[in-house]
């Protein structure tokens, strides 16, 4: 468990970052579905099949050990209310031989601007850096507004692929983990956060 205190309007607020449990997964997938239209930025009208996604990600969560993968599915919570989630695993070898892949990062729209994404990514980077990993890879749809977020974190596009049956251009970002940690530590001052 990871705790972050944030000062908001003069009040200290406790945000807990912890692993997702099976009971959290349905809400996490519903959050992904809520965020998908914004991620696609009008490039597709694709909708998620919640039941199919739930089954896939729940199986994925439990299959890490058998696949020699260290997977993390984290959630940010305030008073047991989910604020956002992040999914991460080892990167594909063709993207990085010493890296992790951010498989998903979703924050409720009304919770954005509070540093939730930074808290989730900070926890992820800290954990995987201790395992000796050096880079983070992020696949993000080309027209998604969140691309600017990854650029601010120091990530650079190193290739572009077509996804969703070859219809959607997807930028593949790469960044050194220590550089991103450094950026985040400077950014948390803006949000008046303390990590414990």
Notable characteristics:
33% helix, 196 residues, globular, alpha+beta, 35% strand, Aminopeptidase, 9-stranded mixed sheet
Structural summary, described in words:
Helices cover 33% and strands 35% of the residues. With 196 residues, it is an alpha+beta fold. The chain has one domain (2-195): Aminopeptidase, CATH 3.40.630. The chain has a nine-stranded mixed β-sheet, sandwiched between helices. Helix 1 (22-40) packs across helix 2 (50-63) and helix 3 (116-130) packs antiparallel against helix 5. 29% of the residues are buried. It comes from Anaerocolumna xylanovorans DSM 12503. Keywords: Transferase. Pfam families: Acetyltransf_1 (PF00583). InterPro entries: Acyl_CoA_acyltransferase, GNAT_dom.
Main sheet characteristics: 9 strands, mixed
Mean pLDDT, to the nearest integer, reads: 86
- At the fourth level of CATH, the homologous superfamily is Gcn5-related N-acetyltransferase (GNAT)
Count the strands?
9
Helix content: 25-40%
- Count of discrete alpha- or pi-helical segments spanning 4 or more residues: 5
Listing every helix as H and every strand as E from the N terminus to the C terminus, the arrangement reads EEHHEEEHEHEEHE
Radius of gyration over all CA atoms, rounded: 16 Å
CATH architecture: 3-Layer(aba) Sandwich
Tally of domains: 1
Question: Could you say what the CATH topology is called?
Answer: Aminopeptidase
As residue ranges, the low-confidence spans are none
Structural class: alpha+beta
Cross-sheet strand order for the largest sheet: 7-8-6-5-4-3-2-1-9
Protein name: Acetyltransferase (GNAT) family protein
GO molecular function, one term: acyltransferase activity, transferring groups other than amino-acyl groups
Domain N-acetyltransferase: 15-178
InterPro entries: Acyl_CoA_acyltransferase, GNAT_dom
């Amino acid at each position: 468990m990871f705790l972050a205190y944030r000062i908001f309007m003069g009040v200290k607020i406790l945000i807990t970052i912890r692993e997702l449990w099976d009971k959290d997964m349905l809400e996490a997938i519903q959050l992904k579905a809520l965020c998908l239209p914004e991620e696609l930025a009008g490039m597709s009208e694709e909708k998620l099949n919640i039941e199919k996604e739930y089954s896939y990600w729940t199986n994925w969560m439990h299959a890490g050990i058998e696949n020699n993968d260290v997977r993390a599915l984290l959630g940010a919570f305030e008073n047991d209310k989910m604020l956002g989630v992040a999914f991460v695993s080892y990167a594909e070898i063709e993207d990085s031989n010493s890296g992790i892949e951010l498989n998903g990062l979703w924050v409720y729209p009304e919770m954005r601007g509070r540093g939730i994404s930074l808290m989730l990514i900070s926890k992820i980077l800290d954990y995987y850096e201790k395992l000796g990993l050096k880079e983070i890879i992020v696949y993000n749809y080309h027209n998604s507004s969140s691309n600017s977020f990854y650029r601010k974190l120091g990530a650079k596009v190193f290739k572009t692929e077509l996804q969703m049956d070859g219809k959607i251009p997807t930028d593949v970002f790469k960044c050194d983990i220590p550089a991103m940690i450094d950026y985040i530590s400077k950014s948390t001052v803006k949000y008046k956060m303390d990590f414990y």
